[in-house]
Amino acid sequence: MKGNLPDVHDFSERLKKGDRVTLGRAITYVESSLSAHQEFIQEVLNLIMPFTGNAIRIGITGSPGVGKSTFVETFGMHLISLGHKVGVLAVDPSSRQTGGSILGDKTRMMQLSTSKNAFVRPSPAGKTLGGVAQHTRETILLCEAAGYDIILVETVGVGQSETAVYEMTDFYLLMILAGAGDELQGIKRGVVELADMIVVNKSDGDNVSLAQKAKAAYTNALHLFPAKESQWTPPVLTASALKNKGIEAIWHQIQDYQQLVKENDYFKIHRQRQLLQWMEDAMHLEINSHFFSSEKLKKAIKKSKKQVLDLKITPFFAAKQMVLLFLQK
Amino acid sequence: MKGNLPDVHDFSERLKKGDRVTLGRAITYVESSLSAHQEFIQEVLNLIMPFTGNAIRIGITGSPGVGKSTFVETFGMHLISLGHKVGVLAVDPSSRQTGGSILGDKTRMMQLSTSKNAFVRPSPAGKTLGGVAQHTRETILLCEAAGYDIILVETVGVGQSETAVYEMTDFYLLMILAGAGDELQGIKRGVVELADMIVVNKSDGDNVSLAQKAKAAYTNALHLFPAKESQWTPPVLTASALKNKGIEAIWHQIQDYQQLVKENDYFKIHRQRQLLQWMEDAMHLEINSHFFSSEKLKKAIKKSKKQVLDLKITPFFAAKQMVLLFLQK
Fold first, then answer.
1. What is the pTM of this model?
2. Which residues on B lie below 8 Å from A326 (Cβ)?
3. Do B11 and B159 lie in a common domain?
4. Residues 164-193 of B with CB under 8 A from A
5. Does B45 share its domain with B63?
6. What average pLDDT score do residues B44-68 get?
7. What is the CATH number of the domain that holds A156?
8. Which residues constitute the domain of residue B290?
9. I want to staple A307 with a disulfide (CB 3.0 to 4.6 A). Which of A264, A312, B177, B210 is the partner?
10. ipTM of the complex as predicted
11. Distance (Å, rounded) from C-alpha B206 to C-alpha B138?
């Protein structure tokens, strides 16, 4: 049944030794829809599970054009210069339509994507947000088992990918630009509220004073939010990813955050909550996937739809009938 | 088993005759979590289904404070003066926490709520958005069978209730205020794109010229969106619900819309699409509700969660195990 799949124990050992080819293959299995691949990789994930969780997972969000890719490149190279191994992932449920805008073009992370201490992986394409999020979560675990101790997860910054990234990371960095008008314009309030840090990017040249104003405006705005359960006060920093300015300060703050939440136990509590949330989300995905792919139902659903369109039965009654049929022993 | 439930045929007949007490009870059954109530009302809904669909369903959205309740009151009374019967519903998944901000206080719709040609019903409380949306959909059908020929569905204008209301209505009215700054600020682009009409409310007194400016800005903004499948060009109108200004023009435009989409068949196509979407959503709700309320799983889920927190198994593996256990014959 396993066909030409490798031995699961050998494979897991190679992964834990940090073998890049093995990691790449593992992620390919995660993203595969073949059930043999899925069974194999789920077994691998169980084996490596005790060796995961040792990285800090940093979510990076912001509108398109804010410079996230450039920041990931500069920030990632800085972390590597300090001796870290950096995994770079993305959550982009739209990447099928847009042809993979995010990380699709690795040229925007030229240094990082050729460094032996970085592993850059684009978002899986052509899935729903739920599917993309679950695959990214599994990929985080694989990267951690392979020894990557800092995971950067980038979001497209539209739709609901921000929440998905928040729910899989320890630290949530919101990147903004200094605008000409209202500093808070266009940024969803909910995302600002989630942020552990706001970085005003492209603070270089003529932009510096605008960036300083934006920093002041956001610092004021953040005061309006209730205190965080983590007891962390989110700072607002200015940076220029392009000119490599302000990058060190960002990492210092993230380390301060880590120290705080490890001391006050929030880190652990937050991780545990996330694990249970991941399980809940996976149950939703799994039961729906069984239901909507059921061969038994296909004809019945088609027939029911016709009755609904003819106003013979309500869509709610039709749904109940289909679920009863599905669950029939 | 039916206990003291009325005869389903008698009940449906009384509903179709427009009996208000029967309609009120029917909605109470819709919102009830007792399975006897649910079975009863699903049977009623099937019986009345051929007598539904004759109303125009108008969704009304806008930020809190924009004056939606005042508008519904003024607009509703205008429609009644023209001989219509008006049903007023709301989608507010947060109404439990906020104590039912929307329609909770019927005093804001004093005339309407005491008119014999209006039926005002607050949002069901304490449910998820999916649950609230489904109950509102069922309530629309009940109101239509009871002879209400215009249904107004109000949304809180935060979170995802806007999309839910869009998916259950024929015409989507976005209400805004003229602001001091950027006219497009704070309104989600996605909602503007869905709108069939934008109403700049509170256009009275000193506000009139600001409202005119907002109207111009939104008219320009709407040109940037692609043409609608309905072939309708969304107009921007100014109004003052408080001073009863601009209300007639709004209704005229909605009638023009109706005529257009009935002639070009979009009305029917759109309704049919919605019915199938309702069925799909109901299947999601139903299968998840069976799964997450399964007694068989409760202990197993608890045990699995512990293993997940101990990093013995992945949350994804645990989820698959739970679904297999649930589906086990």
1. 0.82
2. 287
3. no
4. 181-182, 185
5. no
6. 93
7. 3.40.50.300
8. 281-327
9. A312
10. 0.88
11. 43
